[in-house]
Amino acid sequence: MIGNRYPAADVLAQRGRWDAATRAVVLDRVHNVPEFRYFNGHDRVTLEALCARIIPQDHRPIEDRVPIAPWIDERCAGAASVGFRFEDMPDDATAWVLGLTGLDDAAQSIAGAPFCSLPSIKQDRILNAIRTGDPPGDTWQRLPARRWWINLALKQISGIYYAHPTAWNEIGFGGPAYPRGYAALNFGAREPWEADEVLDPGSSPA
Predict the structure, then answer these.
(1) Which residues lie closer than 8 Å to 30 by C-beta, 6 or more apart?
(2) pLDDT tens digits for 106-122?
(3) Which residue, 99, 107, 112, 149, is the most exposed by fewest CB within 10 angstroms?
(4) Domain membership flag for residue 5
(5) Number of folded domains in the chain?
(6) How confident is residue 193, by pLDDT bands cut at 50, 70 and 90?
(7) Is the dihedral of CA 43, 45, 48, 49 positive or negative?
């Protein structure tokens, strides 16, 4: 069970202090989760299983979990790009399709079943093979596994997660400070609108 270190955190309670453009962007992430348009049924399930292993959210009710896979799908459907790509990697949308296929290739080779149907301990074994750059499967002969893992899977999944107010509450981030700005100038000091951290029982302040 993951403890809630910032039980009083509620970033959205501050939305009245944001400018209109910032408020629109943040609330869009919460209320306008996109429909799947790019990934087919099996790839969608595989992507959701991957997201659940990289950032587990089983400790939250389903309605409170940060949606990650739909925003990756939206990026792929819109051919979004970070403005560069590695010479041994295809565009992001293609790399996602290949990577999800590669997850199944490795899972079938190691465990004899699709990635999404495996228990978490076996899924982690597949992901570790990809992380170390030596997973089995024909797909990984065409796609550099470690680069896909670090520069696509981890970066996009964690980036989408930590762009959501639920994740901000989790880490005690008070949200955007525009236009009011930051006032706490001492290193490590919290802003007046940020929640206090509640230490675990038995621990002491650093």
Answers:
(1) 12, 164, 165
(2) 999 999 999 999 999 99
(3) 112
(4) no
(5) 1
(6) confident
(7) negative
Alpha helices (runs of H) in the chain, residue ranges in sequence order: 20-31, 41-54, 69-77, 92-111, 120-131, 145-148, 155-161, 165-171
Q: Is the pLDDT of residue 165 over 60?
A: yes
Does residue 48 belong to any structural domain of this protein?
yes
**DSSP one-letter string for 29-46:** HHH-PPPP-SS-HHHHHH
Amino acid at 181: G
In a domain? residue 38 = yes
Domain that holds residue 35: 11-171
44 in Cβ contact with 33 (< 8 Å): no
pLDDT band, very low/low/confident/very high, at 206 (cuts 50, 70, 90): very low
The interaxial angle of helices 120-131 and 92-111, nearest 10 deg, is: 120
Q: How many angstroms separate the CA atoms of 120 and 55, rounded?
A: 12
